[in-house]
Amino acid sequence: MPAVRPGPLVGALIQVVFLAVLAATVGLGLSGWVAGLAYGGGLGSALLWGLRRAGAAALRPADRVTMVRAILVGGVTALVADALADRPAPVAVLVSMSAVALALDGVDGYVARRTGTASDMGARFDMEVDAFLIFVLSVHMVRPLGAWVLAIGTMRYAFVVAGWVRPWLRGRLPARQWRKVVAATQGIVLTVAAADVLPRPLAIAAVAMSLALLVESFGRDVLWLWMHRASVSTRS
Fold first, then answer.
1. pLDDT tens string 87-96
2. b/e for 178-202, b at 16 or more Cβ within 10 A?
3. What's the rounded Cα separation, in Å, for the pair 79 and 118?
């Protein structure tokens, strides 16, 4: 009999409750509900798959912190979907949720180290939450800044798709602190841009510089994988 893993289900249910709170306070349209529920369902399914693959029976302490971040990202996703449907987005709420999700990014790693519960699945969970938040924020900034901003949000997913075609791109990269700094920069810059506190030229310059850093970071990783393509181990 397969092990029961309630964590992902609880997370999905909390996501629904969180969407209901947003609907009752700032308002949530049909597009927001559809996007938020789809995100919550996808989150629960992906976590169940990850736990089964890792042979884990439950979420670890650090994973629960990441779950909080993921639920906040679900709220951001719902508000951005509403904005795309021409429903005014409550900027203060959207930016606040993004900021808290970014601030908690270092907390889950700290908890993992303090409790000795770091895992590959937890690191992947954390990374995917970061990537999706950056993607959603980049979608939100298309209207004020232009479609080029999508390059920030889609680069991670383009890299994954390229790995299906070129297996050497799925090689295990060495740890690099600069990679984490660049990833954090994307979320921070996009959140500040979404807050609409900068003059448009300055916002464009900041996001463009952020994109340049991301291109450099991905380019360095691709170059390393190319140079070690004959010896790197690929993730199944």
1. 888 999 999 9
2. eebebbebbbbbbbbbbbeeeeeee
3. 32
